[in-house]
Amino acid sequence: MATDIVDAHDRYYRGVRTVPYDIVKELVIALGVVTALVLALSFVFSSPDLPPLTIRGWAATDPVDFVTTATGELSGSTTTGGYGPPYNTAGSGQSWGPLAPVQWAGVHQPVDAANLFVLSPLQTASASDANLASALSAYSSASDKQQSAWLDAYTAALSKATVGSSNQVIVASGDYGPVPELTGSLLRLAQSGALDGQLQDAGHFYNTDYTRSLLFMGDGGVLSSLASNQHLLGNQWGMMSETGSYPGQSWLWLYTFWYQVWPFTSDKGFLGLNSANADLGVVLIMGLLTTLLALVPFIPVLRDIPRWVPVHRLIWRGDHWKERLDASASVTPAPAARAS
Questions:
Q1: CA 306 to chain centre
Q2: Which of 95, 230, 142, 122 is nearest to 184 (CA)?
Q3: Of the candidates 61, 141, 161, 77, which has an alpha carbon nearest to the alpha carbon of residue 114?
Q4: Which of 11, 66, 239, 311 is deepest in the core (most CB within 10 A)?
Q5: Digit-coded pLDDT (tens) for 103-136
Q6: Buried b / exposed e along 67-99 (16+ C-beta atoms within 10 A)
Q7: What predicted TM-score, i.e. pTM, was given to this entire model?
Q8: CA-based angle 237:243:246, to the nearest 5?
Q9: What distances in angstroms separate CA 254 from CA 259, 270, 290, one per listed residue?
């Protein structure tokens, strides 16, 4: 029985040239080459290892921007203050004709910018600060008209503000009411790191929700400044993965591409799609393209493209594939082994 198996093996591989093959050696070489290639490419294309961005760092490095943002939160002039769903009802959100998904979903993550980012943290801190408690009382008891007058005057003065030796914001004298005391106290709170903890405290043991901190920083200039430095703005085509990771979110170019072309770069746009509702338009386009990709085997025209454009045949160019088929067909199959 053993002899029959050996004879069948020899007949099957008769005429086939064989060479010694060391699979372990090839595996080691391939692993070494791939490792070296990955390390080389990671040095060239990996994302920078940036330190974490915190409100404490923002308040320490750019106190004027921090105070200006806090003042804007009080006046309701920031992006978050007028964003609309899912945070508040101050805006209508993006829509295209009858398509208004943010309005359908409604407000499911309430954010009152003035109270969340400024007044509520100050109220907590005022328990041990009599001056702050008095300033909060004066601000809350004032009329809306008076509050707006204070905030407008202080916002104008901040355009020429300077930073003092104690890293506090200094503006020209004016009728600002208790606003400087409020924003100054919030700045000190932020520089101590306490504001980070208050905004990230979601009532859970593990705090992993940074939505409120990011919204607050996004209303200022700190995020856009860092994004510009890393070429991540909408008009810069940049993409970055998690800190220190490789190769980055290269798949995002499918989305960022649409923000660079008309009608999403125009105020007028086309058929209601423009720069104002670009986010919704890009999501709809990518959703349509993804659906088409999934349905390619069932769509008559798209499924025939590989047959009309036979790029895959370049791999089998020439008549070599016929020779291989003929050679395989001429091989005499080995006879079945007989039981002894």
A1: 34
A2: 122
A3: 77
A4: 66
A5: 999 999 999 999 999 999 999 999 999 999 999 9
A6: bbbbbbbbbbebebbebebebbeeeebbbbeee
A7: 0.73
A8: 70
A9: 10, 21, 11
